[in-house]
Amino acid sequence: MYPFWPYGDDSPRRSTPPDDDHVTVDEALAQRVAEAILQAPLVESGHLHIEVQNGVAILSGSLSSREACDAAADRARETPGVRDVSDQLTVSPARGRKKRG
Fold first, then answer.
1. What domains, with CATH codes, occur in the chain?
2. Which InterPro entries has this protein been placed in (predicted)?
């Protein structure tokens, strides 16, 4: 699995490359997918994990909106080398909302 670390408004958006010098094709592709998703303006906060198996990008975790989830999946699909995308992303509940009552 290739983690795309959580980020919020107060921390930098980043992906973490593999530690060793022997990067597989799928690990390199996961890095390219992460870099593409970082460029999506709608993906502002949340927790996203990216795994690539045989060219299939598997996105899991939660983002701030359905639009952000769709934008992440679209960016993954547009990444050269990605054969398919398994979008397992969910929308995280809004923070700071007060209950009515």
1. 2-91 (3.30.70)
2. BON_dom
